[in-house]
Amino acid sequence: MLELLYTALLYLIQPLIWIRLWVRGRKAPAYRKRWGERYGFYRRPLKPGGIMLHSVSVGETLAAIPLVRALRHRYPDLPITVTTMTPTGSERVQSAFGNDVQHVYLPYDLPDALNRFLNKIDPKLVLIMETELWPNLIAALHKRHIPLVIANARLSARSAAGYAKLGKFVRTLLRRITLIAAQNEEDGERFVALGAKNNQVTVTGSLKFDISVTPQLAAKAVTLRSQWAPHRPVWIATSTHDGEESIVIAAHQALLHQFPNLLLILVPRHPERFPDAINLVRQAGLSYITRSSGEVPSASTQVVVGDTMGELMLLYGIADLAFVGGSLVERGGHNPLEAAAHAIPVLMGPHTFNFKDICARLDQASGLITITDAATLAKEVSSLLTDADYRNFYGRHAVEVLYQNQGALQCLLQLLEPYLPPKTH
């Protein structure tokens, strides 16, 4: 009964979804494009019979990059279809893989749209990153006997409590899933408590630890640093949200009194915030350029606004330390491990519930510094820039946490082998 009510409601709210897409399209015009894909209609042919991977957020897409690369290496003859829900996710997939994978938007969870989609790509295996439990998608895969794996699965106590209210509906949903590869024991136990069977759940660790700085990326970062700031300190503030850019800018203004040649790289989380961030920098009276302009910072440039996609790991490589946003406002924070991979100190605000386990490990190992406002941010950045030993201490411990917790990728790849043809490599 709940499944029918859910589906009926989803059909009823479609006009509201169209309005929302149109409104979001004011700031991000890409939201007004490719609507057909959201209902299972495609303008170009798609290769069937491969692996489908869905990641709803930019963070999940980034976490999936090593997995997709490993799958392409092991199964080069299988087409890989990566689905997302947003234009930003689409751009990240394009920048990471180009034409090596197929990208489309995942259709809304409507039975007819999903059937058109699955008829088109006919996957051998479906991977969903973290915790995207779409009832009709799960039911359709179960009916077609297509294995479904929740990779890098996590379930917060709050989300588990919400799902628990749905009782049998959620239990039925979970038991249609082939495998749940949980990030840690707590996540696995929550899935079991909701109704998943013990033999459905395996703890693999977090894929977010399985990132690395390639020699090519490191060399590119060294070159860019020599062009941008060969003799000046650089700090970066990434994945910032509304309310955080002003805090970062205030901290930077305070720091300029002590470090007159300090350069800030400011990277908002969402492309639609690029103009707002630029306006805030301009209103503060700071000299700036945008990354998309292709300009090289002059000696008088105080801020570079990172308004391009897919360059975050490169920009981290230029910086001496990093503030990771979504954490000074109640967004739950973003992935600190991308900065840690470069062995630079990581600063975050107190709101890190999206990365609770990762931040706890970094904090316990002295690989994370918690700040609360512009004053504490400026104070910690000042301490790190003044004392190279202090800076190296935090950077070294951050990257050690990354190395010590790697291995989830290989574990997951082994778990996927029974559902795929014999690997080629």
From TrEMBL:
GO cellular component, one term: plasma membrane
Listed Pfam families: Glycos_transf_1 (PF00534), Glycos_transf_N (PF04413)
Name the record gives this protein: 3-deoxy-D-manno-octulosonic acid transferase
All residue ranges annotated as the 3-deoxy-D-manno-octulosonic-acid transferase N-terminal domain in the record: 33-211
Membrane-topology descriptor: Single-pass membrane protein
InterPro entries in the record: Glyco_trans_1, Glycos_transf_N, Glycos_transf_N_sf, Kdotransferase
Location(s) in or outside the cell: Cell inner membrane; Cell membrane
Gene3D superfamilies reported for this sequence: 3-Deoxy-D-manno-octulosonic-acid transferase, N-terminal domain, Glycogen Phosphorylase B
NCBIfam families named among the record's database cross-references: PRK05749.1-1 (NF004385), PRK05749.1-4 (NF004388)
Family: Belongs to the glycosyltransferase group 1 family. Glycosyltransferase 30 subfamily.
Source domain of life: Bacteria
Pathway: Bacterial outer membrane biogenesis; LPS core biosynthesis; Glycolipid biosynthesis; KDO(2)-lipid A biosynthesis; KDO(2)-lipid A from CMP-3-deoxy-D-manno-octulosonate and lipid IV(A): step 1/4; Glycolipid biosynthesis; KDO(2)-lipid A biosynthesis; KDO(2)-lipid A from CMP-3-deoxy-D-manno-octulosonate and lipid IV(A): step 2/4
Catalytic activity as recorded in UniProt: lipid IVA (E. coli) + CMP-3-deoxy-beta-D-manno-octulosonate = alpha-Kdo-(2->6)-lipid IVA (E. coli) + CMP + H(+); alpha-Kdo-(2->6)-lipid IVA (E. coli) + CMP-3-deoxy-beta-D-manno-octulosonate = alpha-Kdo-(2->4)-alpha-Kdo-(2->6)-lipid IVA (E. coli) + CMP + H(+)
Gene Ontology biological process terms from the UniProt entry: lipid A biosynthetic process; lipopolysaccharide core region biosynthetic process
Site positions per UniProt: Transition state stabilizer: 130, 208
GO molecular function: Kdo transferase activity
Keyword tags: Cell inner membrane, Cell membrane, Lipopolysaccharide biosynthesis, Membrane, Signal-anchor, Transferase, Transmembrane
Residues annotated as catalytic: 60
Role of this protein: Involved in lipopolysaccharide (LPS) biosynthesis. Catalyzes the transfer of two 3-deoxy-D-manno-octulosonate (Kdo) residues from CMP-Kdo to lipid IV(A), the tetraacyldisaccharide-1,4'-bisphosphate precursor of lipid A. Involved in lipopolysaccharide (LPS) biosynthesis. Catalyzes the transfer of 3-deoxy-D-manno-octulosonate (Kdo) residue(s) from CMP-Kdo to lipid IV(A), the tetraacyldisaccharide-1,4'-bisphosphate precursor of lipid A.
E.C. number(s) listed in UniProt: 2.4.99.12
Glycosyl transferase family domain sequence ranges: 297-395
SUPFAM superfamilies (alphabetical): UDP-Glycosyltransferase/glycogen phosphorylase
